[in-house]
């Protein structure tokens, strides 16, 4: 299972890094709508997400309410360099955790809760696919829209973008 996922993981993380490399440092406080995240927060969220894979693979459950310290502050990118350093570190940690996970461990159940509220219950494999891989793909696409709206060329992901014919 790990071998099968690593190829996809590497490809998705490379695409995500290419997208993060384009964040405009002069627009980190920009957002397209009052309900939207700041561009810097969205980039920070993408940088943090690979760490979720490590949590899902090394714990039996995670309680968002109990695990966050009172002074918790979500990551907001301060610069491209800042967000890429965090992303690269989290990707390396997640890749190592994926590679070290046995098929038996992938099949074990894992839970994500917020106090009494159940957010996810399923196998570790499902948790990593849904809340790491799919979650990153979702937010990377959001960041692509932010790039487009701020006049930054959007990188090619699964095929040519309007800005890159490759």
Structure description:
- 56% of the residues lie in helices and 10% in strands.
- The chain has 166 residues and is mainly alpha-helical.
- The protein has one domain (2-149): Four Helix Bundle (Hemerythrin (Met), subunit A), CATH 1.20.120.
- Strands 1-2-3 form a three-stranded mixed sheet.
- A hairpin with a 2-residue loop joins β2 and β3.
- The longest helix is centred in the C-terminal third of the chain and has 26 residues, at 124-149.
- The two termini are 31 Å apart.
Write the layout of secondary structure elements.
Blueprint: H1 2-20, H2 39-48, H3 50-58, E1 61-63, H4 64-67, H5 80-99, H6 103-107, E2 109-114, E3 117-123, H7 124-149
Parallel strand pairs: 1-2
Antiparallel strand pairs: 2-3
Helix pairs in contact: 1-5, 1-7, 2-5, 2-7, 3-5, 3-7
Radius of gyration: 16 Å
Structural class, judged by helices and strands? mainly alpha
CATH class: Mainly Alpha
Question: Strand share of the residues?
Answer: 5-15%
Q: Which second-level CATH architecture applies?
A: Up-down Bundle
* Major beta-sheet overview: 3 strands, mixed
Helix content: 55-70%
Q: What is the 3D shape?
A: globular
Helix tally equals: 7
Q: What is the helix/strand order?
A: HHHEHHHEEH
Query: What do we call the CATH topology?
Result: Four Helix Bundle (Hemerythrin (Met), subunit A)
Instruction: Please give the number of β-strands.
Output: 3
Which stretches of 5+ consecutive residues score pLDDT under 50? none
- Amino- and carboxy-terminal Cα gap: 31 Å
How do the strands line up in the largest sheet? 1-2-3
What's the CATH H-level homologous superfamily?
A: dinb family like domain
Total domain modules? 1
The average pLDDT score comes to 95
């Amino acid at each position: 299972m790990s071998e099968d996922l690593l190829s996809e993981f590497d490809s998705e993380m490379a695409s995500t890094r290419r997208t993060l490399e384009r964040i405009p440092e002069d627009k980190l406080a920009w957002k397209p709508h009052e309900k939207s995240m700041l561009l810097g927060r969205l980039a920070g969220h993408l940088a943090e997400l690979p760490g979720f894979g490590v949590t899902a693979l090394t714990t039996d459950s995670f309680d968002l309410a109990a695990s966050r310290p009172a002074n918790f502050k979500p990551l907001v990118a301060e610069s491209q360099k800042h967000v890429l350093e965090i992303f690269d570190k989290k990707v390396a940690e997640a890749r190592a955790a994926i590679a070290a996970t046995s098929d038996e461990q992938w099949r074990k159940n894992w839970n994500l809760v917020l106090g009494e509220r159940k957010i996810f219950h399923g196998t570790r494999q499902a948790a990593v696919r849904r809340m790491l891989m799919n979650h990153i793909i979702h937010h990377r696409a959001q960041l692509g829209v932010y790039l487009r709206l701020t006049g930054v060329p959007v990188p090619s992901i699964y095929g040519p973008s309007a800005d890159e014919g490759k």
